[in-house]
Amino acid sequence: MSSASRTSAARRAGATRVRLWPALLRSLLWLLLGGWVGSWLLFALVVAPTAFRVLPSTPVAGSLVGPVLDALHLYGAAAGLALAVLALLLRRGWLRIALPLAMSAACLISQFGVSAALAEIRDQAFGPGGSEMVAAHFTRLHRISMTIYSAVLLGALALVALHAASDTPPEP
C-alpha cells in the first residue's frame, strides 16, 4: 500500500470518527429528552390518576405516588444538567443550554423544597386530629408542586421542538 493510499484511508477513518461523535451526542440528547418527556407524561396521565382511583385511600395512593415523583424529580435534575452539557457540546445556542438548567433547578426546588414540606406536614394535615389550617397549607403546596411539574413538562416539550429545529437540515 502506497503512502498516499494510507494517508487517504487515515483521512476517511478520521472523518468517520468526526461524524460519529456528533451522532453519538445527538442520540444521547434524544434518549435523555425522550425519557424525560415520556416518564413525566406517563406519571401525569396514567400513574397518578390510576393510583388515586384504584387504591383504597388517598394516603395509600400518596405513598405510591410520592416515591415515583421523587425519582422523576431526581431524573429531571440529572437530565437537565446532561442536556445542557450536550447542547453546549453540540453548539446549540444559549436557550438550549439555559432552559434545561432552569428545568433542572425547578426539579430540585420541587424535590427538596416543596415535596419535602408536603411530606413534613402530610400527617398533621390528614392524620388523626388533622388541622384544617395545615390541610389548607398542604393544598397550597400541592398546587405549587403541580405548577412546577407542569412548567417543567412544558419546558421539556419546548426543548423537543428546539432540538428538532436544530436537527432539521436547511431546505435546498
Description:
- The chain is mostly helical.
- The protein has one domain.
- It contains four helices and no strands.
- It starts with a helix and ends in a 5-residue tail after the last helix.
Outline of this structure?
With 172 residues, the chain is mainly alpha-helical. It has one domain. Helix content is 89%, strand content 0%.
What portion of the residues fall into strands of 2 or more residues? under 5%
Kindly give the count of domains. Answer: 1
State the order of secondary-structure elements, H for helix, E for strand.
HHHH
| Global outline | elongated
Q: Helical amount among residues, as a percent range?
A: over 70%
Q: Quick check: average pLDDT?
A: 91
The total of beta strands comes to: 0
List keywords for this structure.
mainly alpha; 4 helices; 172 residues; single chain
Topology (elements, then pairings):
Elements (H helix, E strand, L loop, with lengths): L2 H52 L3 H32 L4 H33 L5 H36 L5
